[in-house]
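Notebook p. 47: complex prediction with LLP.
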Amino acid sequence: MTANPNTSAPASPLAPDWLAVPADLNALHAPMWAAGVARNETGELAIDGIAVSELQRQFGTPLFVMSETDFRARARAFQDAFNEAFADICGGVDVYYAGKSFLCTAVVRWVEEEGLRLDTASGGELAVAARAGIPGAAVALHGNNKSDAEIHRALDMKLGRIVVDSLAELERVAAIAQNRGETAKVMLRLTPGVHAHTHEFIATAHEDQKFGLSMAGDSTDQAGLSAAEEAVAAAAGHDSIELLGLHCHIGSQIFEPDGFALAAEKLLDFLAAMQAKYSIVLPELDLGGGYGIAYTPVDTPRPPAEIAQAMAAVVRAKVAELGITAPRISIEPGRAIVGSSTFTLYEVGTLKTVRVDAPGSGAQNVTYPRRYVSVDGGMSDNARPVLYDADYSAVLASRSSTAAPQLSRVVGKHCESGDIVVRDVYLPEDVAAGDLLAVPGTGAYCWALSSNYNYLARPGVVAVRDGSARLIVRGETEEDLLNRDMGA
Ligand code: LLP
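Predicted complex, structure tokens below:
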């Protein structure tokens, strides 16, 4: 394999500032890829030595290709890093994998085998957990609008925790548990007024969003009593509720530990105040998920140990200041465990180059080329660029190339001009129909958010471990697509 010789190609004026022309288009930026992904001796992308053309032959495209080894390693890395950092504070940390990011029965088993627990957010996710056979004690249920059926299911499965989101829900859980003659294990989800988004966080008095119980003093009709405090008092008064503690989740794709630390401080202050005022013990504190990953070369996530140590330092100091016994800490990472374990494999179809005015070029009428590279999937298997303006990256996967870099836009096959998979990426200018492209970092919230728009069949998911690949979720067939059409 030869390195791309065209290292001095100028950046396209159409490219965003953050996108550099890669020195070598064949190189893989390690933080974006699963362990075991590399180019083989012919220059083709391979995972655990299995070439992508072989994966296409066996399973077709588009295809989610997941490294089971990588998933397990990241799960363990979180568990180990947080256990170590918090060992002296609360004996360790319970890590709940956030199943909403990607869930199937195989993944539940990996999670369980690696010593993690499972965070679910609906009856459907509970059904996957039940089918996989994970003990209910290791499962949490979230949701801002749980149905009675979901609450019954949580009690049927003897869930370790139901994370209650509102006062009304607390009363429903209490009544349902009481009618069943049972006790529900409950955490209260609070909104600490910290909202973190990637590089920054803002702290506001009120969280203008649907989730959780506000900690602001005037958030209920009762003067001076927050919704959070009212819930604590109500929970303490119900025999059918075992109040385990407090929960918060401040956002997603966060790189800096500051937001987590601030939320932890606020919740510990509140926890100490509630313990004193209501003579109760709240033995658990869940600080949610949200740890960021690298989607492009400019994303720089921190290793779990660094985040864990920063959070532990704050919790250690706060607990000492308050003079309380530290609650058992738990966290709920999803994206940071599964996101980088997976790439999506697509086949290239139609190519088209347009000429576009450079931003700010005004009347000079200078245009530059942008290459549209259409692939055989799109917004139905990755809605994140459309939903969140999310940036991704891509490489030519079926071969290496020494052609010059060309600013490209990878688009899907849907009937929408906004159907973009990778907005801006430099690909070799000889990319042609029939080539395979790989988009890394698609393990989280891609398959989970996938749709059948335009009656496309949702792709399968292949897990690779120790040099062999197996389907863990099969791709849909045309028959699946027509199955629910009653024909009437
Ligand atoms: N815990 C709770 C209560 C959550 O709501 C979430 C994510 C997590 C944990 C896991 O967060 P993670 O570690 O994966 O960031 N669809 C969006 C993300 C939505 C996140 C929803 N809640 C996306 O694709 O960026």
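Notes: The chain has a mean pLDDT of 94. The longest strand covers residues 342-357.
Next step: compare against the earlier run before touching the bench.
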